[in-house]
Amino acid sequence: MQLAKEVKYLIHKEVLLEWRSKYTINGVLLYVVSTIFTCYLSFVSLGDKLTWNALFWIIMLFASINGVSKSFLQETKGQQLYSYVLASPAAVLISKTVYNILLMLVLTTIALGFYTLVFDSFTPPDLWLYYVAVVLGSISFSTVFTMVSAIASKAGNGGMLMAILSFPIIIPVLILLIKLAKNAVDGLPWENSYDEIAMLLVVNVLMVATSLLLFPYLWRD
Amino acid sequence: MHKTWWKILGSVLVIYTAIAGLLLGVPRLPILNETIRNLYFHVPMWFAMIVLFSISVFYSVRSLSTKSEIDDMKAVESVNAGIVFGLLGLVTGAIWAKFTWGQFWSFDPKQNFAAISILLYFAYLILRNAIDEEQKRAKISAIYNIFAFPMMVVLLFVLPRLKDSLHPGNGGNPGFNSYDLDSRMRMVFYPACLGWILVGYWVYTIRFRIRTIENKQQQN
Q: What per-residue confidence (pLDDT) applies to A105?
């Protein structure tokens, strides 16, 4: 498989580049930690478990916008041309998405750990279900933001456009995620959450499919 | 005549539904009372909006393959017309909600999601303003339009069903089908939908023609 080979190579390239500079992961990690700390200093304690949940997802949303939007916005025209010549557009998109999912998984896991450490007044009774929500969140944030950051980078008007374009698309996903996480916070049995999990998976498949269809048109200048 | 019959049909239907919707009999129900007539004016707005946005996606897909400026203009003008119908749908819904739910905006999922799906299309228009080069603008905005359309469908038709909503037809509340036992309301509702869709399409064609003339003037 040519595509699988290209994807594997490109992911390797992304991870290697990241490993050499460690800019994105450390930058976003510091961003998350300082945001959580700022929230801690301003809230001191979160009386309500719903606020606990909502605050976590808002922090995750902004951290992932910052982290994932780097994938296309950071690249120079020359780098984009280079990968355009070397690999098929589908391979570029899949590799970026997979790399972003990996990045977000590491990031959200650390963030969740730090968040429960700082706001230790409350821990979700069903931590595994909460972690499933976090994993699904990382995947959906990556699939949506990768495509939107590609659109924003081609429009040549970085940060603000990224936020405007991605918020209306991510809000429905975020609502589903918060609902799923709320089930975990309330300690409901897993059967009550299958609807949300299935819905999130469907939305992700839909997003990846439309991205794969549209990306070749975007990629060719 | 063969080109204008649907315009005449659309205007006749809208005039008929405006008169019949306010005068013909409706089922007498507690709480709803006469506000049930809002069905004829609120729901058709959404039908017209969905049709216009679908037209826009169709022309966005076409403009990606043909790269013609006309397809791009059709896509943006149908979004412009569709947004007006979406806003009218929100306003008519909010006024109705004031008299039945007690507040213009009661954070009902259906209201929130409808508002977000309108935001999507405002984002589309802002994206267009951000790009100067015409062909690039056509391509990138078409891609965003196609990317956003499935999300709008999820927002308007799937998510409200997962949440508790006060909106008729959602969250265990009966829709109008169950009130309309003698099909009196159907006699007005279906013509209203068809009429507003035709009028919406007419608005879009007029806007498109204005845009074409403006473009010609600029080129001369």
A: 93
Low-confidence ranges of chain B (pLDDT < 50): none
Q: Which residue in chain B is spatially nearest to A150 when comparing CA positions?
A: B140
Rg of the Cα atoms in chain B: 19
DSSP string covering A86-99, please?
HS-HHHHHHHHHHH
Per-residue model confidence as pLDDT tens digits over B89-125: 999 999 988 888 888 888 888 888 899 999 999 999 9
Q: Which residue of A has its CA nearest to B127?
A: A161
Query: Which of B64, B131, B159 to mutate to probe the A interface, most A CBs <10 Å?
Result: B159
Partner residue facing B130 (CB), from A157, A169, A207: A157
Contacts of B123 (CB under 8 A, 6+ apart): A164, A165, A167, A168, B144, B148
Which chain A residues are closer than 8 Å to B86 by Cβ?
none
Q: By CB neighbour count within 10 A (0-12 exposed, 13-18 middle, 19+ buried), where does A15 fall?
A: middle
CA distances from A180 to A23, B16, B28, B172, B181 (A): 32, 47, 40, 21, 39
Mean of the per-residue pLDDT values of chain A = 87
What residues in A contact B159, CB-CB < 8 Å?
172, 175-176
A24 membership: H or E segment, kind and range: helix A23-43
